[in-house]
Amino acid sequence: MKEMLEAAKAAKTTIAALTEQEKSAALNAMADSLLQCEAGILAANELDMKAAKGHMPDVMLDRLRLTPERIAGMAQGIREVAQLPDPVGLTLESHTRPDGLKIDKVSVPMGVIAIIYESRPNVTSDAAALALKSGNVCILRGGKEAFRSANAIVESLRMGLKSEGIPETAVNLVQDTSRDSATALMTANGYVDLLIPRGGAGLISACVRTATVPCIATGTGICHVYVEKTADQNMALNIIENAKTSRPSVCNAEEVLLVDKAIAPEFLPKLHARLGQKVELRLDSEAAKYIPGTPAGEKDFDTEFLDYILAVKCVENVREAVAHIAAHSTGHSEAIVTTDPAAEAFFVANVDSAAVYVNASTRFTDGGEFGLGCEMGISTQKLHARGPMGLRELTTYKYIIHGNGQVRV
């Protein structure tokens, strides 16, 4: 680990100095190499899948699984990052003082970014691409479940870097998947400029508690959809089905449904008819009056299920919906389905989450869907970055001051 940290630190000046053209050429070479190494990556992933079966729920196995189509999507994601505007060297603000000093605020890379993540192999290529495009060196520490896959991916990406004359140490994968290696990254002061944990609540809380390096907490997603009494009910059903079932194992999937009591007798039977065969509905006492399901337990409105489970609660109005979200949300993504401008305005103004939707699925909280390219994660904190973390969020800034001999009196 010490050798890797030192190599990463040594590379960051070189990577920060790359031109936009050099970074784009390297990224396209990385995408080419990823596709060329497809067979080896799939073979490594098959070993990971075999080892994980029986130890991981099916929805989590789906996150681990790679296919030719998913690898093609990873390569395309790298190419899309290559085409995005360079976030480095931008003049964010500029002004001239009365004494003639010209002060520019200019974007610069973070330096060395460490990413600790779990069982999603695609995070490996996404993180590497975003780090390089933003002029950063990355140290990747994946979970043991996906180690073989991640290792094969990193080897292919480093081949692409090498072909363009870029130091391979721009992209690094920690070979040790024990807790010791994670702790070492969390406390690598002087080497790691930014730590980003990406995974479940346990991983994120461990990083927040332990890290002595700067850390951005990418949040778990207890995401809510509130169906207000004036909602187009067919639209609401479509949104709920997409938000819950299109990919239940991701952080932007819906976990809690709030339904206005005024329409509950009419709407909930429609919900049961649409989702009852594939989603376990955990119902509060009011919702249970209208449809069959599992009684909601004490923790069901505070759980990121990452599965085909949906907690359902009836509320009096938009104010109660917002109050419930404030008490139970993780600050990730919330949606209202409504045709009432007043309800919409109250919801948007008072829900304090990174992404707030009106008449749309929470599943859009994603760097690619926001037009940011692939993402490093979804930040639910408020300092430095919030929401999908794209290229801009992987830079910081410095002040550059031009004078002509001024001295302070």
Structure explained in plain terms:
- The chain is an alpha/beta fold and 409 residues long.
- The chain is built from 13 helices and 16 strands.
- The strands form 4 sheets. Strands 10-9-11-8-7-12-13 form a 7-stranded parallel beta sheet, sandwiched between helices.
- It is globular and about 75 Å long.
What descriptors fit this protein?
16 strands, seven-stranded parallel β-sheet, alpha/beta, globular, 409 residues
Terminal CA distance reads: 49 Å
State mean pLDDT (0 to 100 scale).
Answer: 94
Number of helices: 13
**Poorly predicted runs:** none
SSE layout and pairings?
Layout: H1 2-16, H2 20-36, H3 38-52, H4 58-64, H5 68-83, E1 91-96, E2 102-109, E3 112-117, H6 122-133, E4 137-141, H7 147-163, E5 171-173, H8 179-186, E6 194-198, H9 201-210, E7 223-227, H10 233-245, E8 254-260, H11 264-275, E9 280-283, E10 294-295, E11 309-315, H12 318-328, E12 333-337, H13 341-350, E13 355-358, E14 378-379, E15 387-388, E16 395-402
Parallel strand pairs: 3-4, 3-6, 4-5, 7-8, 7-12, 8-11, 9-10, 9-11, 12-13
Antiparallel strand pairs: 1-2, 2-16, 14-15
Helix pairs in contact: 2-5, 2-7, 3-7, 5-6, 6-7
